[in-house]
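# step 3/5: fold
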Amino acid sequence: MDFPVSSRKLLERMQQEPFLSDFRPVEQCNLDYHPQRGSAIDPHLDDSWLWGERLVTINMLSDTIITMSLHEAPTGEIQVAVPFPRRCLLVLYHDARHKWKHAVYRQDVEDRRVCSTFRELSAEFLPGGQEAQLGAQLLNIASNFQGMPV
């Protein structure tokens, strides 16, 4: 894949892991959190129609906490605070991807935090899916990207 050098090397390293060997991201989302600005991200599930089974995030610059919450629990909401050290990779998949919401709360951003999240296409956009042709186009664009990230 032709990403900026640091992203390309990161993807090559990720794909050395057996669980991510077939991971073909079509999006890289970079977020920059600053405690002075009150940076945070509310509990959410990433779209399942477009984005595939695995969400891969690398945390850079500082440690933080990812809060996972399950709203369908018989006893009410369950929250789990997951330490996310700097320079670590988090892969959300299966129930963690589709049932548990994830968030980074304002009080958990103590220092500047930069993260990159990579998303793959859902089965609907892969060979055999209803949108396979569009998926092939998107994968082609992503794998040949030579512009500047925005």
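# step 4/5: annotate
The chain has one domain: 5-144.
# step 5/5: archive (pending)
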